[in-house]
Recover the amino acids of this structure.
């Protein structure tokens, strides 16, 4: 994937994020994640039914990388089982941390495959996934 396409995908998810806005529903698990070194502060709400992620909502203030990473994560995980989600999370983290990963599992999140070139942005790309890990621990 060329850099222009990556940039367009990131900006599209930043300006038009999926499932932005929280709901008043106690069936969701809600967590907050933030980056201490910048403005990124996201509330995530995840609904899990029969071991499947049926909905993810988010809101907060965040940079283009964190916001787009959240939107892309939501797009990737809706309808996935917890087991599938954990595998995607594992491969995504490997990619961000410059380890060998399975690109077929990463899907559209491949747009962050060279985020390592800006080490301070790795935290931004990992922020929503950190929140998801918290949710899965609370489940």
């Amino acid at each position: 994937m060329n850099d222009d396409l990556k940039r367009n995908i990131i900006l599209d998810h930043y300006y038009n994020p999926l499932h932005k806005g929280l709901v008043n529903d106690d069936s969701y698990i809600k967590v907050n994640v933030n980056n201490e070194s910048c403005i990124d502060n996201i509330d995530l709400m995840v609904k899990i039914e029969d071991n499947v992620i049926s909905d993810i909502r988010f809101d907060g203030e965040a940079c283009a990388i964190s916001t787009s990473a959240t939107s892309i994560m939501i797009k990737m995980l809706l309808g996935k089982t917890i087991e599938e989600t954990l595998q995607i999370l594992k491969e995504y983290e490997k990619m961000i941390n410059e380890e060998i990963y399975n690109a077929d599992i990463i899907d559209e999140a491949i747009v962050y495959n060279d985020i390592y070139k800006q080490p301070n942005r790795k935290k931004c790309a990992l922020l929503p996934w950190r929140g998801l890990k918290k949710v899965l621990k609370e489940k």
User: Anything to note?
Assistant: The mean pLDDT is 95.
